[in-house]
Design goal:
By secondary structure, this protein is of the alpha/beta class. Helices cover 31% and strands 24% of the residues. It is built from 17 helices and 25 strands. An eight-stranded parallel sheet has the order 12-11-10-9-6-5-4-13. Strands 14-19-20-25-22-23 form a six-stranded antiparallel sheet, with helices on one face. A four-stranded antiparallel sheet has the order 15-16-21-24, with no helix packed on it. A hairpin with a 2-residue loop joins strand 2 and strand 3. The protein is globular and about 80 Å long. It starts with a helix and ends with a strand.
Amino acid sequence: MKAPLKIVLTFALAWSTTLLFSQLPYLDKSGKAPKLMVDGKPFIILGGELHNSTGSDKAALQKVWKEMKDLHLNTVLAYAYWELLEPVEGKYNFELVDAAIEGAKKENLKIVLVWFGSWKSTASTYVPEWVKTNPQRFQRYTLENGKTLEILSPFSEENRNADAKAYTALMQHLKEVDKQHTVIMTQVENEPGCFENYRDLSPLALKAWQSAIPDDMLNYLKINKGKLFPALEKAWADNGYKTKGTWEEVLGKSTEQGEYKHYTEELFMAYHYSKYINYITAEGRKKYDLPAFCNGWLYNKRGFYPHGTINPHVLDAYRAGGKALDFYSPNVYTIEYDELFDAYTFGGNTLFIPESSLMPAGALYAIGKYNALGFAPFGIDGERMKSKENINNLNLLKSTYQAFSQMVGTITQNYGSEKMKAVYLNPVKESQEIKMGDYKLTATSSRKLGFSIDFGKSLENEGKAKMSFGPTTSETKEDKAKAMPAGPFGALPEEIGAAILIQNAADEFYVVGYGVKLHFELKEGINFEHLGFLSIEEGEFENDKFVVTKRWNGDEQKASLPGDKITTLKIRLYRF
């Protein structure tokens, strides 16, 4: 190659790389579902969240990144702690943040930076000592008896402005040092709310409660009338769709009655938490405009959850409170995904799972059915992840992420499309039916013992006769329903399975998952004489291209994914 041409090509490569790195990560909302764009390309967060204190220890941080890379993560949820970032008011220390960025960069990992500012799991334990020890200046959440909690009040501008000042300094620092965009998104605060009471009774909070409902909340209600969360729509309708008055005058008395107790008080607190967090986020984005979100502790009907936290029944109030946050996320410690994910995507909220039990099925289902931006189990750096109870799921997660890493384009180009769907099974959801193109597919567990006598039959008749092997069980669905994850590290039920299905052509499907058997039929009304498998090929994706490694036939000619490993199939059918 002649020297001038080589110089031109080198310059062109350097220039294109510079252009990519000059473009901040952002949410592309031009398609049917938002995509996270990083370095100019679609990006799925194949993540894991560190233990809360890992980020305060530089030695521990140094060990984390290689381990995360070996698990096929591409993103780590790491922390910035207000108390360590601003130990003295107005004096900032970014040493730990810089160490995280440098460590992640060496392993080509990205970071979602979690800001532990005013609230972490409702409490204000990460605020600096100069905030903790000055309750006169930094007002706290107050109970009916006048006692206060170690929770900053969201009604105090002094609290909000101090947090915003520190967060803005952090964002300015990221702008100056993170030229390669290792940090791709921020989580601003963590699980706001209060277990002890439904609303703050501090003087500032009482004044807000007794005042007229704010204009931006009323405008949100009016614009979204008929599209609000059902419980909120009903509360407003039952009160005559009023458009002026106090919170209780517009939305009804806050009582113990109904599914959501003290509902109006929860909406009131959710709105004011949102105003506080969105203000902080907006101030930071003025300096460095990264995507941002906040997360919530899941609602449960027993009432054990922080009231006013980010949950579907108050999500409208959060969205009314500001637009600086791009979306709101659940922390997922349940196996009842359908109801949960439906609720969190209601009204167009974008799904991202920033914290979860170690459930690879969650990644497959959230991404495949709900176009989630990504998935991240909590405590990914801990030894308990490698325990006897968790090691199989850790290996499944590793294989899931490895498979996804090579098919990001294939998945994201099908976000919001009828050509991509997912199935998910658990102990109480033993089958799932979906429709794709001309086909009706039924998913059941591949762990069921038995051998189908289906030789030569058309696929719609498959599975009607079986030979059974091994013992049966008398366990009821009610018994199985009790098999729920006990927090981040509890043992999970074995009867879990999930798969993503992508229809590549009229009679051709890619399937990625585990623990699922798929039964193919043609939809009612389609005339045919025989339906069969043309081929079933096992393989893997390489740069969004399917590469065959094995052809399944004979005893293995069935769309059955083993429960102990991630399998990728290309299934072709024929009919006449």
